[in-house]
Amino acid sequence: MDDVLRVDDLHKSFGKGHQVVHANAGVSMEARAGQVVALLGHNGAGKTTLVNQIVGLMRPDGGEIRVAGVDAVASPAMARRLCSVQAQANVPISGLTPLRAIELVGRIRGGDRRLVRARAASLIEGLALAPWARTKAEKVSGGVARLTAFAMCAVVPGRLVILDEPTNDVDPVRRRLLWTQIRRLADDGAAVLLVTHNVAEAASIIDRLVVLDRGRVIAAGTPAGVVAEHAPGASLEDAYIALVGEAEEAAA
Amino acid sequence: MKESLTLAAPTVTPPVTPPRTANAWTQVGLLMRWQLLRAAQAVPLLVVVQLLLAVATVIGYGFLVGDTAGPAGLYLTTGAPTISLVMIGLVMTPQWVAQSRTEGSLDWMRTLPVARPLFLIADLAVWTMIALPGLVVGLLLGAARFDVTLSLRWWIVPGALLVSLTAASIGYGIANLFAPPVAQILSQVFVFVVMLFSPISFPAQRLPQWAQTLHHWLPFEPMAQIVRGGLAGDVFSVPVRAWLVLAAWCVISVGGAVWALGRRP
């Protein structure tokens, strides 16, 4: 029972009457310590809605969320202590430098000053951010800002680390470094929930995946298992495209 | 720049379980640093705007009033700090919060393990620091210009904090409950309601009866009475009712702001 994240039959709708959108329509999934679990799906599949409920920014209509055994719906404050989040939108940190922002967030999250400093330096080196570490954030590129946001989330990681599109805007060289850091978070004992469209690259570091479509889980399992079931012999990305295509045909 | 970072940082493994939540006051201090650094470019300008506001509400109002001898000068001098505090809370707060909502930083900040009231306290402390130079200069300027003698009471500081906390909480609530463009417009409306139609820099008797009755229940008149009584205690006494009405507004607005911050749609 080392599930760090356990979601059971989660429901969340927006709007009323004919306009109602079932963003999550009975989602169940889990993530264990030491695992990177990819959460895949088209735009509007319900991924960010799921994330927002886990960290207590939205209240589910029904279902259960447990983070390290804690009822996250009843105790959002406790859930936030157990999770660290990289949001989908870039967090504006103009006025701060990447290094200062990473260290401040680490301290706010309760990290010891020396550990935070060492960990921030380690992340900056690991992500090759040193040339910009002390540059005002308004002067850095979108990719550097994205990597900084990842480091802000990873500096004092929660038991559950949630990354929403961490590779957006990041150049190919640093994307590799980023995947290494994400894998390392899990190897160090966290459960990582990775929301991404970058299926091809993520394939090399994930342990499991969950595919959402129109608020429902349409596939879940190991990459090899999902490939074997939906596109034997093909790549994970091909299997994913086949899967979503099947779901769209079925819905049409 | 580069060389200072060639610290050849060893790979540092983070502890998996995040440590205890940071001490609340440490978190407030860190949030204040975050906000001040983020607003570093704007802070000098904001301080200047507050200074100008203080000058406007003391000297500028003096031109409007004409005869500033006697009580009028005292009203202007002791009303200026209230106007500054209310402006910070009801005008700058909604604009600041609405902007952080629009740019997406507020939602992300809300994912941090920080108790909701601490956001309010940290922001309030930052804004009060921005307002402080204007407050002091306005007072000194008024005292010199109108030859007013102040008689401070011990409770002026907690009284001013009560005013400040209530105004900022109302602003916070507005900024969190209304869509950012609506919050921005509401904050503009407050500018002239507070500056021209609230008995802060002039006696309530000048208002029509219905407005006087309304102000018995709104927070602005009690705010002005408390600050005025704390600054010129020899001339003005504070009715008990002012404390009660403002305390009620404070409880409701702080509760509302904390609720709005923790709200989960």
What does this entry look like structurally?
- The complex is a heterodimer of chains A (252) and B (265).
- With 252 residues, chain A is of the alpha/beta class.
- Chain A has a single domain, classed as P-loop containing nucleotide triphosphate hydrolases (Rossmann fold).
- Helix content of chain A is 38%, strand content 25%.
- Chain A has 9 helices and 10 strands.
- In chain A, the strands form 2 sheets. A 6-stranded mixed β-sheet of chain A has the order 6-7-8-3-9-10, with helices on both faces. In chain A, strands 2-1-4-5 form a 4-stranded antiparallel β-sheet, with helices on one face.
- By secondary structure, chain B is an all-alpha fold.
- Chain B has one domain.
- Chain B has 10 helices and no strands.
- Chain B has helices at residues 24-38, 43-65, 71-102, 105-109, 116-145, 156-177, 180-196, 209-217, 220-231, 240-262.
- The N and C termini of chain B lie far apart (45 Å).
- Chains A and B meet through helix 2, strand 6, helix 3 and helix 4 of A and helix 1 and helix 4 of B.
